Amino acid sequence: MTDARSTLRADCSRCAGLCCVGPSLTRSADFAIDKPAGVPCPNLLDDFRCGVHDRLRPLGFPGCTVFDCFGAGQRTVQDVYDGRSWRDDEVQAAQVFDVFGVLRGLHELLWLLAGVASYEVVERGAVDTLADEVEAAAAGDAAAILAVDLAGLRERVGVVLRRASAALRVPAGPELRGADLVGRTFTGQELAGADVSGALLLGADLRGSSLHRTDLLGADLRGADVRGADLATALFLTQVQVNASDGDGATTLPPHLDRPGHWLSPPPAAGNR
Fold first, then answer.
1. How many other CB atoms are there within 10 angstroms of residue 176's CB atom?
2. Confidence of residue 163 (pLDDT cuts 50, 70, 90)
3. In the chain, where are the structural domains located?
4. What angle do CA 234, 109, 180 make, to 5 degrees?
5. CA of 32: how far to CAs of 26, 42, 56, 170, 179, in Å?
6. pLDDT class for 120, splitting at 50, 70, 90?
7. Which of 115, 149, 153, 255 maximizes the CB count within 10 A of its CB?
8. How far apart are CA 174 and CA 199, in angstroms?
């Protein structure tokens, strides 16, 4: 059976640089500049490519390497606007960016539901029905998409994900949902079956840890050291989280996720952070 997540991957060649224009940027550790929403990034080229794509991190734009639209960019441009971009006179640029934002949220929900569907879970029927509803919402025209109750859908999907998490995390590990784990050390520890959904794991040391069926829904993994960690069966892990962390050639990932270019290979010696 084909994993639905394979269709929820960004294809920048079929987009129009929406993520480089729509969102605002704030000068920080993630972005080297301030940029208002709706204003093109100065690094965006006329053909919608990034002029510094191969140097984003050293130039101070790691936030750009973390972002993932789950395929909402090309769907906005190709399906909703029939191949037209925000630069076209007959298109309202602000509307395009708003549609993109809603579609990205819907595609992320589809990604998470597809993750649940990849397991044999009790609520498979409910998962499929909800996924069909989210897909139908994403398949509308611009006006219909902007009218979607995204917050309501997120809440309903969240209920299904929490139930699936409880069913899949057997035996259950530590309950750390929403915990402040910034900078904590879990080196080599077993976090299998743990619930760390919504937890702050910024800069946490997870080297060599097993995260077998660990619930990572919404966990903040920015700067988390996952060198040598086993993430192959972690629950609800997204490319955004992987991109935000620091791994290496020994880190194991699910087959539907890509190894980020900034991860070191071969892995550095133990203790060198």
1. 20
2. very high
3. 4-168, 170-273
4. 50
5. 8, 11, 10, 44, 29
6. confident
7. 115
8. 12
Q: Which residues contact 173 (CB under 8 A, 6 or more apart)?
A: 190, 191, 192, 193, 194, 195, 214
Query: With a threshold of 0.85, does the pTM exceed it?
Result: yes
In DSSP terms, 264 is beta-bridged to 248
pLDDT at site 3: 79
The pLDDT of 132-159, averaged and rounded, is 97
In contact, 156 and 137? CB cutoff 8 Å: no
**Beta-bridge mates of residue 50:** 44
| H or E stretch at 162 | helix 150-168
Residue 216 CB partners (closer than 8 Å, separation 6+): 196, 197, 234, 235, 236, 237, 241
Distance CA 84, CA 144 (A): 18
Helical spans, DSSP H, in the chain: 62-66, 72-74, 93-117, 124-138, 142-146, 150-168, 239-244
> What crossing angle do the helices spanning 124-138 and 150-168 adopt, rounded to 10°?
150
Quick one: pLDDT at residue 4? 84
Query: What's at 172, amino acid-wise?
Result: A
Calpha distance 254→54 (Å, rounded): 25
pLDDT in tens, 209-225: 999 999 999 999 999 99
Cα(196)–Cα(175) distance, integer angstroms: 7
Predicted pLDDT of residue 2: 65
d(CA 141, CA 104): 15
The domain defined by 170-273 folds into Pectate Lyase C-like (2.160.20)
Phi first, then psi: give them for residue 166, nearest 5 degrees: -65, -35
How many residues can be counted in the chain? Answer: 273
Q: CA-CA-CA-CA torsion for 175, 178, 179, 185, nearest 10 degrees? A: 80
